Amino acid sequence: MTDHKASENEKEALEKYLLQFLNLEKQFPLLPGIKNQEAIASVIGIEKKELDKLRNLFNQNTKQASLELLNDDEISGFLDDLPFRENDTIIALGDSMTDDLQGWFGILANLMEIAKPEANLTFINSGISYNTSSEALRRLHRDVLSHDPDWVIVALGTYDAIRLDIAPERTLLPLSETWENLNTISSAIQQVTQNPVIWISPPPVIPGLLDEMELFDFDINEKDLFSIREVIAGKEGYIIDPAGRRMGNPPEAWYYLSDGINPSLSGHTNTVRELLKSLAKKEN
After folding, report:
1. Is position 29 within any domain?
2. Is residue 30 over pLDDT 80?
3. What is the SS3 assignment for 199?
């Protein structure tokens, strides 16, 4: 056990931003002792009871968001038209927007469990924070295909588009590599399920907020995200929010955390709203 404990300021940062993305069990699944929650808490610098309390808080937030969506007559009207079938396994492959403990995938899972418990759906969150499409492709077999999914939701691209402070003249991945990665991911998924891939486009970022985050040494430009959305919009399957406008047009800060990249609970709720609408209305 480490002697270091998080200070009050560090605990505040954990609660308000960091902890919902520190899912070490998913990032290091083969590490001995990774299932020991006391060890996880120690690495983070807090007690296990504090870790449990905060993670439970995020879970309660997702449940509350799902209940609010279910109270929306428009949303409840979509549920009978969704393409999911009894006993389906639904996996999300993504970055921090998916990995988020109070993110869109958790809201979706809670919503379906409340609204359609008889469907017996299985939800597996295979998002890992800050993943590029290359990193997601590398772990595709372990984290997605090996589970024999019926549906795969892919939400990638934001971190392909980062421009490092040391190399602002280029994106981390060239657009051609993003295109190749997403094509390969799509082809591999089609080998394990006949259902179409569900693609969620990356939302825009809030200019300026990212500059205030000491944790990050990169920038993200809308023009780069726009190009990635165009790649996604040209793919087969369900395309969720191809224009990237679910956070407002222009995007509203209310729908984001303090970094201007990752959605707030309200922003994630917008993603679920758009997802349900698109799945229910599209004819295949």
Report:
1. no
2. yes
3. strand
Task: Please tell me the total count of domains within the chain.
Answer: 1
In whole angstroms, what is the distance from residue 141 CA to residue 146 CA? 6
Is residue 43, in this structure, part of any structural domain at all?
A: no
- Tokens for 190, please give them: 């089609």
The tens digit of pLDDT for each residue in 40-69 reads 888 888 899 999 999 999 999 999 999 999
Q: In residues, how long is the chain? A: 284
How much of the chain exceeds pLDDT 90, in percent? 79
Q: To which H or E segment does residue 220 belong?
A: strand 218-220
pTM recorded for the entire structure: 0.93
Q: What is the C-alpha separation between 206 and 138, in angstroms, rounded?
A: 30
pLDDT of residue 154: 98
CATH number, domain of 165, equals: 3.40.50.1110
Across all residues in the chain, what is the average pLDDT? 92
Q: How far apart are CA 267 and CA 253, in angstroms?
A: 9
Q: What integer is the mean pLDDT of 102-122?
A: 97
Residue 161 structure tokens = 């588009």
Question: Whose CA is closest to 115, among 82, 70, 64?
Answer: 70
| pLDDT over 70, % of the chain | 94
130 Cα distance to chain centroid: 10
Residue 142: inside a domain, yes or no? yes
Closest CA to 163 of 215, 224, 214, 204: 224
Contact 256, 263 (CB under 8 A): yes
Residue 11 within any structural domain of the chain: no
pLDDT band at 222 (very low <50, low <70, confident <90, very high): very high
Q: What domain range includes position 149? A: 83-281
Distance (Å, rounded) from C-alpha 93 to C-alpha 108?
A: 14
Output phi, psi for 122, to 5 deg: -110, 125
**Sign of torsion, CA 207 171 175 261?**
negative
